[in-house]
Write a structure and sequence with these properties.
The structure holds two protein chains of two kinds.
Chain A: E1 3-16, E2 19-32, E3 36-40, H1 47-53, E4 62-64, E5 69-74, E6 77-80, H2 87-90, E7 98-101, H3 105-108, H4 115-126, H5 131-144, H6 150-155, H7 163-175, E8 181-185, H8 193-210, E9 213-218, H9 221-227, E10 230-235, E11 238-244, H10 245-250, H11 255-263, E12 313-314, E13 320-321
Parallel strand pairs in A: 3-9, 3-10, 7-8, 8-9
Antiparallel strand pairs in A: 1-2, 1-4, 1-5, 5-6, 10-11, 11-13, 12-13
Chain B: E1 5-17, E2 29-41, E3 45-49, H1 56-63, E4 71-77, E5 82-84, H2 90-99, E6 100-103, H3 117-128, H4 134-147, H5 152-155, H6 164-176, E7 182-186, H7 194-211, E8 214-219, H8 222-228, E9 231-236, E10 239-245, H9 246-251, H10 256-264, H11 304-308, E11 314-315, E12 321-322, H12 327-332
Parallel strand pairs in B: 3-8, 3-9, 6-7, 7-8
Antiparallel strand pairs in B: 1-2, 1-4, 4-5, 9-10, 10-12, 11-12
Helix pairs in contact in B: 3-4, 3-6, 4-6, 6-7
The chains are: A alpha/beta, B alpha/beta.
Chain lengths: 333, 337
């Protein structure tokens, strides 16, 4: 497999009225072509912000640390995304090499421009297709994602399509420029389960056909189990566990990952009461010192977990967790 | 559980007329709920599931008289009083609302940002005139707040200072402060994170048992419903398609739609990939429902009769009812949907 993107030491803060808040703290990961990486976390974990950083899509009050490095490997050579400044320069990645699908497809389409015109517009910007060719490609893509009567749908507006249909159109639009990397931010969360199953299947087929890399952001571990090759779990802006999907779900090695799995209602075991993770997610303005999870962790070691930031420890070759419980005492760094 | 249901509906229909339509011919209507018979026993944690557009929210609202009842009956009887909901006058309706309450989905939108938590919880008492003095109100507020794991310090603050889980606990306290008998919880944990959701579910269940409440728990999430509900009803396009005790429904679903819904829940086991049985297509528009069984357009087992006659909800067991022409045949052949 070929390397697609490397993210090193991604640290991102936002200047707000209430102070400077840390949204992402020292996150590093890589993605290969053809790989599906599931990025899991609850609200405020920084998963969407992390993904948007790969296109520098965050708001103007975002401050990236100096050692943040995001490298996209294209056939023409590596692109240092952090060094791209103007929107002209960023066009290489935004909608070009990287496409993004958002959670709410109704909010992602312009309401007063037909689906087709929006698809054609982006193809004209990112490729050298003629308008006629762009229309053909768009209709092909709509048909490819399972939209029947694509030529008619092409002329319709977002409000004329059902939720599942809109999300399919969004996927068609995102893929028509043949991106190397697709970022899907909770693409199935707003959909009903039977439609969710269809969209997940579609996305899997498309990875096989197009060979792109996908970053799949979701809070739903079931969806991750059904789609991802690798998983990265985030909590309050930090990556806490990372590894192949089977290792992480079967042998969760960070107390937070374990807590998330335990909190899920299990259909095979209706007798055990649900086990919530104690407490609430702290406000980003009050990030706990040491391990960010220590305030809710049942196994936290006083004097250690609330003082030192845990480093990643290898559980096996590809699976790692950032937790003091896996490190011999006295070996905190 | 008593023998008599707390609330029951017969042939309940809720239609919403649409604007426009031809001058000739009938005006188009959305048949949000159509011919629903449902009995909710006292003390039951009753689950209502379905996808968007299935009519589950409208049914819940009709039971609170918050949706227009086009046809049919709803009777509420808690042993002390009995109401025939469609014919309630304004005065009786006010009385009914002391006994029937709603918990909303979005704890961010449901709480006024300008009121303290104490005032938010106290408001129903004041509006309904349930307490005689400020002292009594405060006592009731403190009592319910404690049950919902909110402390005195919390009561003085404003909602913006709280997380989603805490806000939902405030909404619950507000709904329960009037000591209702019947509570409709509409997607009450859908907006919460997984780690918080479990906490709120446990709280709802605890309070329901402690206060002997009857809950109508509306949700699209079957695994959540499986964990908290005693009985589950499944809706599709305004109709009730199956109704059974929770364990029975999950162990032996009889309607092809229920089977498909259960199968579509993403499994936590990565080796289950591709095993789920997938439904084709989408839920049809309620303005233009298909003839016959409403599920026939997506059902893998549909035959001629399904396209012509609409199946009635029939008892298929002691407490199990299903609306499908072929359920018996499918169960005998061991055919999984």
């Amino acid at each position: 497999m070929t390397r697609l993107i490397d993210v090193e030491n991604l640290t991102l803060k936002f200047d707000t009225d209430e102070g400077r808040i840390t949204a992402v703290d020292d996150v590093s990961f890589s993605l290969q072509a053809g790989e599906v990486l599931g990025l899991v976390g609850e609200s405020g974990s920084g998963k969407s912000v992390t993904a948007k950083s790969l296109m520098k899509l965050n708001a103007n009050n975002a401050i990236y640390s100096d050692d943040t490095k995001v490298t996209l490997h294209l056939e023409s050579g590596p692109v240092d995304i952090m060094s791209l400044r103007t929107s002209k320069e960023l066009q290489v990645v935004r909608g070009g090499a990287i496409s993004m699908i958002f959670q709410e497809p109704m909010a992602s389409f312009a309401p007063a421009i037909s689906i087709g015109d929006q698809m054609v517009e982006q193809l004209m910007i990112h490729t050298d297709m003629t308008a006629k060719r762009a229309k053909e490609v768009s209709i092909e893509m709509l048909a490819r994602v399972g939209i029947s009567d694509a030529a008619t749908r092409f002329k319709q507006f977002a409000f004329e399509l059902s939720g599942g249909m809109r999300q399919r159109a969004m996927i068609a639009m995102a893929l028509s420029t043949k991106p190397k990397l697709l970022i899907a931010d909770e693409p199935t969360t707003a959909l009903d389960v039977t439609i969710q199953a269809q969209v997940i299947d579609l996305m899997k087929d498309l990875v096989d056909d197009f060979g792109m890399g996908i970053i799949f952001i979701t809070h739903d571990l079931g969806v991750i189990a059904q789609t991802a090759d690798n998983v990265a779990v985030m909590y309050l802006g930090r990556l806490v566990e990372q590894g192949p999907v089977r290792d992480v779900l079967r042998n969760p090695s960070h107390p937070y990952t374990r807590g998330l799995l335990d909190a899920l209602p299990d259909l095979d075991d209706l007798d055990t009461p649900l086990r919530p993770i104690p407490g609430d997610i702290p406000s980003p303005l009050e990030r706990p010192p040491g391990c960010v999870f220590n305030t809710r962790c049942n196994d936290a070691i006083a004097g250690r977990c609330n003082v030192d930031i845990p480093q990643f420890i290898q559980i096996n070759e590809n699976h790692r967790a950032a937790c003091h419980l896996h490190a011999p005492a006295g070996d905190t760094k | 559980m008593s023998d008599k249901p707390l609330i029951s509906t017969r042939d309940l229909s809720v239609h919403f007329p649409l604007r426009g339509g031809g001058i000739f011919g009938p005006k188009p209507v959305v048949r949000a709920v159509e011919g629903v018979d449902i009995d909710i026993d006292k003390g039951n944690f009753f689950g209502l599931v379905g996808e968007s557009g299935s009519g589950k929210t409208t049914l819940g609202r009709a039971m609170l008289r918050a949706a227009p009842i086009t046809r049919g009956d709803i009777v509420y009887d808690d042993g002390e009083v009995s109401y025939d909901l469609p014919s309630l006058g304004d005065k009786e309706l006010k009385e009914y609302r002391k006994r029937a309450q709603l918990i909303f989905q979005d704890p961010y939108a449901a709480l006024s940002p300008r009121m303290t938590v104490r005032d938010i919880i106290a408001e129903p008492l004041e509006v309904m005139g349930l307490t005689k003095s400020k002292g009594e109100t405060d006592e009731r507020v403190r009592e319910i707040a404690a049950k919902c794991r909110l402390n005195l310090e919390h009561l003085r603050r404003f909602p913006h200072a709280f997380s989603g889980g805490q806000r939902q606990r405030i909404s619950i306290a507000r709904a329960l402060v009037s000591r209702p008998q019947f509570v409709v919880a509409d997607e009450s944990v859908a907006a919460l994170d997984v780690s918080i959701q479990a906490d709120v579910l446990n709280l709802l269940k605890e309070i329901q048992q402690e206060m002997g409440l009857t809950f109508l728990f509306i949700s699209h999430d079957l695994s959540v419903v499986a964990h908290v509900c005693d009985h589950v009803a499944v809706m599709y396009l305004g109709r009730l398609v199956e109704s059974a005790p929770t364990r029975e429904l999950f162990a032996a679903p009889r309607h092809p739609y229920t089977k498909a819904l259960l199968s579509a829940i993403p499994s936590l086991d990565p080796d289950d990939r591709g095993k789920a049985q997938k439904l084709e297509g989408e839920i049809p528009s309620p303005t233009n429902p298909p003839p016959g069984c409403k599920f026939q357009t997506r059902c893998p087992h549909a035959i001629d009769i399904c396209r012509k006659d609409e199946p009635k909800l029939q008892q298929s067991g002691k407490e199990h009812a299903v609306a499908c022409h072929r359920w018996q045949e499918l169960a005998e052949n061991g055919m999984s949907a």
